[in-house]
Amino acid sequence: MRKILTFIICAFLALDAAAAGHTITVEGKIAPSELPLAGNGLLGFIPSIDGLGTQRTYSATVHERGNRNSVSKIRPVMSPFSLTVSADGLEPVRRTLDMSRGSFSTTLENNRMRIQATQRALRGLPCIAMLEVEIEALADLSTEFIDHPAIASKDSLVSTSKKVKNEGKYHLMKRRELSYSDGRDIAVSTNAIVCAPGATAIGTDTIAVNLKKNQKTWFCILTAICSSADYGDPWQESERQILFALREGRNRLVARHEQLWSDLWQSDIVIDGNEELQKAATSALYHLYSSIRPGSRRSIAPLGQSGQGYNGHIFWDADTWMLPVIAVLHPELARPMVDFRIDGLPAARKRAQGMGYAGAMFPWEADPYGEESTPTFALTGSMEQHITACVANGAWTYYCTSGDKDWLRTQGYPLMKECADFWASRVERNSDGSYSIKNVVGADEYSIGGDDNAFTNGAAKAALHHTTEAAETLGLQPDSRWKEIADKLSFHYFDDGTMREHATYDGATIKQSDVTLLGYPLGIMTDPDELVRNINYYNDKLDLAHGPAMSHGVMAVTLARHGRPEDAAKALDRAYKPNLRGPFMVLAETASNNRTYFLTGAGAMLQGIIFGYAGLEISPEGVIQTSSELPQDITGVSVSTPFGHFSR
Q1: What angle do CA 574, 580, 583 make, to 5 degrees?
Q2: Pick the catalytic residue: 445, 530, 566, 629?
Q3: Which residue is catalytic, options 258, 372, 418, 589?
Q4: Which end is more exposed in the chain, N or C (fewer Cβ atoms within 10 Å of the end residue's Cβ)?
Q5: Measured between alpha carbons, how far is 567 from 531 in angstroms, rounded to an integer?
Q6: Nearest 5°: phi and psi at 518?
Q7: Close Cβ partners of 259 (under 8 Å, ≥ 6 residues apart)
Q8: Each residue of 245-262: pLDDT tens digit?
Q9: Does the active-site annotation cover 248?
Q10: Catalytic: 589?
Q11: Contact 171, 246 (CB under 8 A)
Q12: 299-316: per-residue pLDDT in tens?
């Protein structure tokens, strides 16, 4: 009991120490692409530049099906709020992202008023977005705020208004129905305005403010967005949710939201000696936490819910780059990511059958229905098949952190077995008794149609071994082919012992490094000299301008674990610094583009810290700490997890 109490006290002390680093305040101008995401795992939106509206808003479940002209993709929903103010010279002067409380505030001023607008995607009521506007009169003030709904031009919007009574007060509510041009889903939003004395709702879209100098007031807009993808009757459900929110009241809604965010931050990272890395790590965690929620049976797209980049599809990014971080910090948030794959099993079985293979073949780009949705101009949809191994390895990662043997028996192992059966049917036996996987695209998507791609073979090898271990853990008899194939998969080498990326690789520029992934996370390449030799070779082959930075994140893990901390620091710097955009530390996909909110890169950077600097490792016994070394500029790293408080 004393050890448990000590851990709890240490965890809370670490959280308190990090709390100050969870707030970023910025004064002056900022680019729209540099603003942070507000999300709760269902709703996600990017605030507008003035903080009174949103640039774009998405619900994780609102997609359109593919058709003859386009693939399945996520669709925007209506803006939950889009205010204008009848005032001259009103400019944003300060913006604050409070990651500990899940809120984003903008302060605007002119010579007559000061406004603070605070946006939240409520963690406790995931269909509801909340905008609080506080007004201070710097002179006698009479002004109006007007809400303007924003939609895509090809979709249609119908509005209706209604007056309801709540606790003796009448509230005007507006319901907006957004009908999508594909004719399948609709989204319905219902909003209500709550006003303090000095502010008056006029109709459903206008708030009049009348104050004397030095007086203050506030109003709050609550918007519930429900879709036919989630509810059979989204019209009434959006209204029910607003009525409930009105009954709860502003203070209870905010308190519940902030408590849930506080619970998330019980698992956190503290870095001593490198303030920039600390801020970047906290921002990365915040954006990951904003993009997932327990029980949802949904995973995370590469750009989260920030836009239509990659159409909102689910890639290996989720299973390989984000899930290990989330599984260590919050296993309950990793569970829905694996649930998503389990729900996709029927479609994956059909895909394997359609391609002439056994088991389940998972899509490179999965839509919400578990179907392949890669645009046909990209051969990755047919050939980047390592995803099926990544799915199995992700399921094993979740089991190791949850320790849930019942889940493994009923859900995890059946998923892994289908993946193993796919690989057993996919490999080809060579004349020397070895096995090859031919004609694939690996992590390096610059190489099309290679044989024996190092990461594809390595990931399949790990998945076959993990599935064998899962069967033995459950007291079941594994298929003997799994181990035989895993032990005899082919890898190819240069004369000096450096592993080739694929059978005929000749030193060309690569997008990502397949080979270095065999050290971490796959654990197949273990000799320190071999690991460093391969890292040095492939580090010089990477496309630093146009390739994503994940390769450097895993290089940092390997180097920190094998006595090269200064080289690890250089690799970790390269994994995030060229991709940082703006003071809120959002990450772009590559050094040369501004496709921000790249959560895949966030996961890679965090893995460099958690599994590299701090030395954590996921094993069948849970999360353990292995040897690692810190670079000179970092005096300490600590990671608070449900498994304990790990420091180095």
Answers
A1: 140
A2: 445
A3: 589
A4: N
A5: 13
A6: -75, -25
A7: none
A8: 999 999 999 999 999 999
A9: no
A10: yes
A11: yes
A12: 999 999 898 889 999 999
